Structures are given as structure tokens and as C-alpha cells.
Amino acid sequence: MGYAGKVLFIDLTSGTHRTEELNRTWAQLYFGGKGLGVKYFVSMTAPSIDALSPENRVVLMTGPLAGTIAPCSGRLSVTTKSPASGTILECGVGGTVGPEIKFAGYDGIIIEGRANDPVYAVVDDDKVSVHPAGDLWGRGCHDTELMLKDRLGEEFRVISIGQAGENLVPMACLTSELYRQAGRGGVGAVFGSKRLKALCIRGRKPVRVPDMTEFMKVVGELMREDCLTDTNLWARTDGTPLLVEASNSAGILPTKNFQDGVFEGFKTINSESVRSVRQRKNACFACTLACGNYVRSGGAVVEGPEYETLALAGSNCGISDLDAVIRFNAACDDLGLDTISTGNVVAFAMELTERGIHDFGMRFGDIRPYLEVPGLIARREGIGSDLAQGVRYVAEKYGGRNFAMEVKGLEIPGYEPRGAWGMGLAYATSDRGACHMRAWPVADEAYGTLDPFTTEGKAALVIGGQHYNAIKFSLIVCDFWAISMENMARLASAATGRHVTSEELERAGERIYNTTRLFNVRAGFRRAADTLPDRIFKETLKTGRAAGRTYPKEEFERMLSEYYALRGWDEEGVPTPTKLEELEIS
Amino acid sequence: MLKFYGDKCFGCQACQLACSAEKLGVFSPRLSLLKVSVRFSKTDRSVLGFVCNACGRCADVCPVEAIVMRCGPKIDSDLCTSCGLCAEECPQGIILQDEEGKARICDFCGGSPACAGWCPAEALRWEV
Predict the structure, then answer these.
(1) Residues A162-182: tens digit of each pLDDT
(2) A212 to chain B: which residues are within 8 Å by CB?
């Protein structure tokens, strides 16, 4: 119960498919979503493979809550090996595509191999087919999705790549419902390498829970007591743009390629400004919070821009014109580009230009070239051929290594670590490079009451966050519901019909985090990669709360050692055999 | 009466899930007795809602008078001959047929509709 009981494998090399019974042992240990997706992925895939080779896989995995009325359960987990970082890569995407997979009768879909020519795959309940996509190849995600819905029927859910994914750009994402992305680390390029333009799904089977009366009772109580509360309703009133003001006040709003943490133009890209162009609120499947802002500005429409876009493609590029950010956002969504990495590489190019290191023809605040870059990157034209490779590559080619703002090749999201020292550890130890969705200590450090300028207690804080998010993204509850571990256990129990405790979930979170770490260790990552760009340790911010403060590297290294020790990993960050045995990881 | 306000709807489909849970004990938007459909194009996004407005068309066309209007439609499944006329005629397109072909029609859950009760957006309301 709670599970469909089947996993679908689509082999693009042979154009065939098969189903397997869900591995119930793994489902008990890893629950679903991130955990189960990662478990399937690592069990089949050698860590040393080239991310863009046919040997890579894409595992799309739902959780036990998918398809139910449990709030914030509409997301889908996508696991692969990242062409950007070379780590394992797990991404989430909202909308309705996840639940639709469950309604089609599968817990997950695993895509393998490589087609000879561009294709799209259709999963219509039990009917699975692969079709030529010659007429779609070369088109953006928006055309692709609308054409496929036109062809197959309005009911089909579509997840697709744009030109960026086709051209194997390592910052290419997957897009669904025009504006929702599995954003980071280049999963779009993995689709592209498989010549898979899109996956279309229609499911008409019911989803069952063990005891409907009990399930509705639990969900109803949690909805009232834990979900629709002031802690979470910011998502509905504002959504993530609310963080622009909060980050600016805390001095952690990435500004001009992380040269500062305060942006003078923040008022025109803050939540109030986004609200002024908002047409309507939008929710994923079964979500009561509806964080989505559907906006219209000038000729552009987008569901967004989210905080990360406002920060990395706004303040970080010195852009205070909301209309420009919206256009940039809409272009990236259509081309299938991650706005965090794209914003970062634009900002890096701007700084390289301003410093005279290499002339990319754009300086901070220059709107015209900024709006041209996404298209150039997606098509790998002109300066786009370099910029498409990401900040690390551009730094290696032209210089500026010390202010190349990435970890393990993945560009840094919207929280300046010099104003939240624990966040630095979260970036350094995330399982996919610089990521804000593994642990988010900024909530306590920059926006809360913890001292942001100390490493004391931060290792434990980051570990707690990593376990919490790992299991949350496995049951699949959205990040934006700050649900307690106890209440997650109640939801998991109601969905699976077995008594799940919060301790069991905590342990599963640790198991999942160690499983991803082990893959990365086997792919060659050690302590030296768990670090931050030199700028963080060697330069100070000019304005705001963190102005003039150094973030000493020795402090960071001490915290990292403490983190490894608390985790039961050795000094190189390798999980010890005892720890792996304790967590039942083979 | 059940009223749908499209401008307030987020498109989360909780209403449809609540309906199928209440009526059939499963989660299935496609088996629910109302429809919410999010339409998007490159320039617009809208939500269309189809709910029973007690128009009585189903009762009018039923050849065996299995449907009576009492607050909303009430169907006597023993009388229903599975002819499917009501489903064909429903202007909202929300009458379904079960595996035997018997009509399934929204009855407003007897005056306390589950769909409106679970709507988080006040987009679906029971107004008396």
C-alpha cells in the first residue's frame, strides 16, 4: 500500500521496455523519491561512468504519498550522474508529472541506453512506446510540451528538454508545465545524450492507501495544525521572492558575482515588485501552499521568478530591472537552462570583463548582452560555447579561479556563505556540489537567531538538515512545508500501513546521505573537493552585516573535520565500514 | 449550491482527490464527479472548473426516472439501466459510469460536499 508496486524500465538503445516488481526491501529502507531513486541508481550504475554516455541512467521516482491528497506531495525525484559535477545528481520537479507516473501504475521509471535518433517516450498506463522526435528536436521546451499535448491529448503530462539539453550543456534542466524544472546539475544534458526529447505520461489508475478514513483524518489534522500555518503560508502570500528582502537585510544576497551581500537595487526585484506583476497563484498537484507566482511583465510571462533567479540572475549580475529578470527567466525555461548556473556564469563573465581578464562584452548591469546569453549558451554559439561549460571551465580557460563561485563544478545558489558560516559547510558537503536543498542552515543563521559568524554547533546543524531533507524528499514532501519529523512519520505510517517512527525516518535520512556519499567517494571525491572558492576565505564583503569579516579557512576546516567525525566518516570524508554496516548499506 | 471561482483556484486538484476518496475510497482525479483543468499556453494560464449546478438535465433525460432532483441529483442505482444518456447529456461532462455502466452523479455529498471542504483556496464553495 502507498506504492504502485512496479518499476518501469525503458531502454532507448533497443527501444524496448519491461517492468519489474518494486523492490520492497529497498522501499522499506529508502521509502521512495530521493532515497529509493538513489538506491536503484547506485545499484545499477558504476560511479566511474561518463555522465553523458549510454551507461548513465535517469531514475524518475515517486514516493508513497504521490497521488494522494497529502499536501505538498506532488513532486517527482530525478536521479542520475551529473555532467556538471561528476557526482550523483538528485533533482526535484513539481507540477503533476510525479503523481501521473503513480496513476499510470508505476512507482518509478528508469531510462537507460541511447537512441540512434531523437525520440520521445509515451507512457499511457500499461502502454509504453517510443517515437521519432525529429520534428521536435531543435525546439524549446514550451513548443515541445504544447505540441505533444496537442498530438497526444490535453491530459498527458510532459517533461522535456530544450535546445540546451540537446546540445549537452551541463547546466541544462528538464522542464514540465512550461515553468517547472528539475533544475540543477545538467539532467537535461543526460536526456540529450540519450536523444530523449521528452517523456509523456498519462495515468488512469487509482492510488490506494491502507485505510482511507484514517488517512483522511491524519491528513486533515496535519493540514490544519502543521501545514496551513503562519510558518508556511509565506509560500502562498509571496512565495520565494520574499527572501530577497530577508537576504539583503542579512547581508547574504549574492551581488555582482559574490563581491557583496547587499544590493542597492534590491527594492525593484523584491517580493513587492513581483506581486505587482502577478496574475495568479499556482500550485503543484495536491499542494495547499501554492507558492507559484504566474507573472506578466511587458511581453513576457513566466511562473516565477523564484528567489534563486532573482538573486543569481538579478543582484548577482547587477540587474535591478525586474522585467529583464523575467525575460531571462522565461528564456531559460524555454531553452531548458538552470537559472542558478546560468546567472552565475553570466556574473562571472561580467567580472572577468570588468577586471580585464577576458572581454565577454558585458559588465554588471548590462541588460542587452545579459538577455542574449541564454540563447547563445543553449546553442553553444559565440561566447556561449565557453559559457555553456560553466564557471569552473571558464575559470580554467581564462583565469579568475579564486572568484569562480562553484563547488565541485556546480555553481553556488543564493546565500552568501560569509554571512552564514554553516551554509558554507552545507555547500561543501552537499551530495551534488553547491546546493541549497540539502541543508539550509541560513534559516537559523541569517534569518534566525543563531550567530552566523561562528562554526560552533554548525556541523551538527548541517547534518540534521541533510538527514531531514533526505527523508523528506524521499517520502516526497515539498521543501516548503516545514513539517516536523514526527508528523512526517504519521504521514508515512498512514500511507504505507506500517508503523513508522520519527527515529526510523531520521535513520533512513542518514542512510540516504551515506549512500550518495559512497557513490561520490567511489567516483573519486575526497576531502579536497569539500571546500569553497577562495573568494569566500580570502576576501571580505563590503557592506551589510558581514562587512569586513573574514571567514577563516582554518575554522572551516575544523568544522569539516567535526562534521566527518560526527558522521562516522574518516578524515578524508569516506564513510567507515562500521558506519555503512550500521546503516545497512552494501 | 456548489460554486467554482476560477480566479481563486490554484489548480491543486485536492477537490477531485477528496471526491474520489469520499465516494470510492481511492485517489483518482479521473474518477471524481467534478473536473478542474489547468490550461496553459505560452501567453496565458487559466483554470476551468466543471461542477454540478443542479441543472436537472440528467433527471429530465433519464428514461426510467432513476434520477430525482432533491437539493442535487439523487440516483437510484437499482432503477438505473446503464443506458448512459445522463452522462451524454450532462452539460458539465461530470457524470461518470461505473464498471457496470451505472451512472455516478454528484449528490453534493448530501449537503456537505467533500470537494469544497478540502479546497484550500476557497475556490470551491458550498453556498446555501
Answers:
(1) 999 999 999 999 999 999 999
(2) 21, 25-26
Tell whether A355 is within 8 A of chain B (Cβ): no
Residue B46 shares a structural domain with residue B65: no
Query: Which residues of chain A are within 8 Å of residue B31 when distances are taken between CB atoms?
Result: 206
Q: Which domain holds residue B97?
A: 54-105
Q: Which residues contact B33 (CB under 8 A, 6 or more apart)?
A: B19, B23, B52, B94, B95, B96, B104, B105, B106
Q: Please say which residue of A147, A179, A202 terminates a domain.
A: A202
Question: Do the Cβ atoms of A142 and B26 come within 8 Å?
Answer: no
Q: What DSSP element (H or E) covers A89? A: strand A88-93
Instruction: Let me know whether A63 and A120 are in one domain.
Output: yes
Domain count, chain A: 3
Helix, strand, coil tally for chain A in percent (to 5)? 45, 15, 40
Average pLDDT of the segment spanning A495-519: 98
Q: What is the pLDDT of residues A513-571, one digit of tens each?
A: 999 999 999 999 999 999 999 999 999 999 999 999 999 999 999 999 999 999 999 99
Q: Which range marks the domain in which residue A75 is found?
A: 6-202
Whether residue B90 lies inside any domain: the answer is yes
> How many independent structural domains does chain B possess?
2
Output the CA–CA distances (angstroms, integers) from residue A520 to A29, A432, A437, A564, in the order listed: 20, 9, 17, 15
ipTM above 0.85, yes or no: yes
A-chain residues near B13 (CB < 8 A): 96, 285-286
Q: Are A107 and A496 in contact (CB under 8 A)?
A: no
A204 part of contact set with chain B, CB < 8 Å = yes
Q: Is the pTM of this model over 0.95?
A: yes
Are B28 and A206 a contacting pair at CB < 8 A? yes
